[in-house]
């Protein structure tokens, strides 16, 4: 039987050629429909409590996403004291090619000794196209695919770079599934997945990528939870010149926010490279928060507090969330019709937004 990728390529080719072979096209469409039917069946069986798959697991705030290079044990040991929302164990760009093996070993050791109560402990693996992804997963999570890694914890979140096409995500999901089956991981392990938009192709394909990611979430190998903007690779890809005010990235940032929010996903803004320019960092962080980003990447501890402040809900926003939730609960008890709050009809996405605001504040208080 043809693989999913082969089927998609055949279908694409038929469209480009205007092929009249309707019988063959019908076979392809039937195959794809059957695949979708399987996903839908799993969804009905396992996720009937929510129409949006991204709400099956607890909301994890990621106002600050900081990369900690895996080849540096001293920096890994500092993670519990960073005060960051999401600490990323780094295997990709922050690690030289000749240090990858050392980074994998250090990260695996860190998963045994790190005690992080308030941060999301994440792992950034190398991209599918790098040919290093399977080695990262095997060494850190699966003892080179021989047995489950003998560590106290596994990464709560996995960050996947350079997702340029639907095919990338489909193949990655197969790799995850193969990994789980071969090392007999506990069936309960289903990490959050954050994917990167780092090229014009990724931006163009973003809607389709997130749609298939939402569908693949139903298979239980990962839960798509957010999108990260890889601005430096994006600038290089489109041949733009990087400027301090980032005007050359305005369209990309707006589109990434809009498409991500359509799928109810978190969206993490770009890195601010000048670690000495605190005013510039503050300005860009506040701008990102107003645009709709839920957090920002940081590369140095001195950036954490500035970024965190920009993405922490204001007292007015917290008051809005508290009153909305209280009003909704009272409305539910009354058994009346549509719920109207401050002149606005309230639906479930808005209620989830209010709850997420309180979750951010709760995490903020625990870390303080």
Automatic annotation (TrEMBL):
Keywords: Acetylation, Hydrolase, Lyase, Magnesium, Metal-binding, Mitochondrion, Transferase, Transit peptide. GO terms for molecular function: (S)-citramalyl-CoA lyase activity; hydrolase activity; malate synthase activity; metal ion binding. GO terms for biological process: regulation of cobalamin metabolic process. Mg(2+) binds at residues 198, 233. Its EC number is 2.3.3.9, 3.1.2.30, 4.1.3.25. It is found in: Mitochondrion. Residues 63-301 form the HpcH/HpaI aldolase/citrate lyase domain. It catalyses: (3S)-citramalyl-CoA = pyruvate + acetyl-CoA; glyoxylate + acetyl-CoA + H2O = (S)-malate + CoA + H(+); propanoyl-CoA + glyoxylate + H2O = 3-methylmalate + CoA + H(+). Its cofactor is Mg(2+). Pfam families: HpcH_HpaI. GO terms for cellular component: mitochondrion. Substrate binds at residues 124, 198. Mitochondrial citramalyl-CoA lyase indirectly involved in the vitamin B12 metabolism. Converts citramalyl-CoA into acetyl-CoA and pyruvate in the C5-dicarboxylate catabolism pathway. The C5-dicarboxylate catabolism pathway is required to detoxify itaconate, a vitamin B12-poisoning metabolite. Also acts as a malate synthase in vitro, converting glyoxylate and acetyl-CoA to malate. Also displays malyl-CoA thioesterase activity. Also acts as a beta-methylmalate synthase in vitro, by mediating conversion of glyoxylate and propionyl-CoA to beta-methylmalate. Homotrimer. Belongs to the HpcH/HpaI aldolase family. Citrate lyase beta subunit-like subfamily. This is Citramalyl-CoA lyase, mitochondrial. It comes from Lymnaea stagnalis (Great pond snail).
């Amino acid at each position: 039987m043809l693989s999913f990728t082969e089927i998609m390529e055949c279908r694409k080719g038929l469209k480009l050629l205007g092929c009249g072979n309707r019988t063959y096209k019908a076979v392809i469409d039937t195959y794809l429909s059957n695949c979708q039917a399987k996903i839908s069946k799993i969804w009905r069986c396992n996720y009937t409590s929510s129409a949006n798959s991204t709400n099956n697991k607890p909301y994890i705030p990621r106002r600050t996403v900081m990369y900690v290079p895996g080849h540096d044990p001293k920096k890994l040991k500092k993670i519990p004291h960073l005060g960051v929302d999401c600490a990323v164990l780094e295997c990709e760009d922050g690690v030289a090619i000749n240090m990858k093996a050392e980074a994998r070993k250090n990260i695996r050791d860190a998963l045994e000794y790190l005690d992080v109560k308030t941060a999301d402990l994440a792992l950034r693996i190398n991209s599918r196209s790098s040919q290093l992804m399977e080695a990262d997963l095997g060494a850190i999570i699966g003892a080179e695919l021989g047995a489950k890694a003998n560590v106290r914890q596994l990464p709560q979140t996995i960050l996947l770079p350079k997702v340029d096409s639907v095919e990338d995500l489909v193949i990655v999901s197969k790799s995850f599934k193969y990994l789980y089956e071969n090392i007999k991981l506990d069936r309960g392990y289903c990490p959050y997945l954050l994917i990167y938009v780092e090229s014009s192709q990724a931006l163009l394909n973003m809607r389709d990528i997130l749609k298939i990611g939402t569908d693949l979430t139903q298979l239980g190998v990962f839960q798509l939870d957010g999108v990260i903007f890889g601005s430096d690779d994006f600038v290089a890809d489109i041949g733009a010149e990087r400027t301090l005010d980032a005007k050359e990235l305005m369209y990309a940032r707006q589109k990434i926010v809009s498409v991500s929010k359509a799928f109810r996903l978190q969206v993490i803004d770009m890195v601010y490279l000048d670690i000495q320019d605190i005013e510039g960092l503050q300005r860009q962080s506040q701008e990102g928060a107003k645009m709709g980003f839920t957090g920002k990447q940081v590369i140095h501890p001195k950036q954490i507090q500035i970024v965190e402040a920009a993405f922490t809900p204001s007292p007015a926003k917290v008051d809005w969330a508290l009153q909305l939730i209280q009003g909704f609960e009272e409305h539910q008890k009354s058994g009346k019709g549509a719920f109207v709050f401050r002149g606005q009809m309230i639906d479930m996405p808005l209620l989830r937004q209010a709850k997420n605001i309180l979750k951010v504040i709760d995490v903020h208080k625990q870390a303080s």
